[in-house]
Amino acid sequence: MSSLKRLERLVKSAIPRFLGHNDQHYSHSDARLILTGFGLDLTPAQLARLADSAEVLEDFTLSLYSLERKIGRSAVNDLMEIDPELNPKAYAEDGNLAFTITWKKKELVFAEYPEFPG
């Protein structure tokens, strides 16, 4: 992900929080729990690298805020997992990781990590 794209996500997710429009506040621990829910789709090495990187956890958290703003509802349930109704999936292909949900019968990528070997 380019630095410009990362900055764009940061700004888009931070502004609503400062204005008090975001009910959900996710921590890095929450992001780890949510990522663990994708454990069957990822190798143990990939999951460990995701969970151990503060940068990835912050980016994943920002991606969740961006996703929720895009779909207009909370994407995470009380158990700190992506709502099963959204059919969350993780794809690992050619050293790239992508996390998706199904929204309005279309698959929507909400977080991606290029050059992420397993």
Highlighted features:
single chain; 118 residues; alpha+beta; three-stranded antiparallel sheet; 3 strands; globular
- Tertiary shape: globular
Structural class: alpha+beta
Number of strands: 3
Order of helices and strands: HHHHEEE
Q: What is the average per-residue confidence, as pLDDT, rounded to a whole number? A: 85
The biggest beta sheet reads: 3 strands, antiparallel
Calculate the terminal CA-CA distance, rounded to whole Å.
17 Å
Strand content: 15-25%
The count of helical stretches stands at 4
Residue stretches low in confidence (pLDDT < 50, at least 5 long) are none
The largest beta-sheet arranges its strands as 1-2-3
Radius of gyration (CA) equals 14 Å
Helical residue percent band: 40-55%
SSE blueprint:
Blueprint: H1 3-19, H2 28-36, H3 44-52, H4 54-71, E1 89-93, E2 96-103, E3 106-113
Helix pairs in contact: 1-4, 2-4
Give a written overview of the molecule.
The chain is α+β, with helices and mostly antiparallel strands and 118 residues long. 45% of the residues lie in helices and 18% in strands. It has a three-stranded antiparallel beta sheet with strand order 1-2-3, with helices on one face. Helix 1 packs across helix 4 and helix 2 crosses helix 4. The longest helix has 18 residues, at 54-71. It is globular. The model has no long low-confidence stretch (mean pLDDT 85).
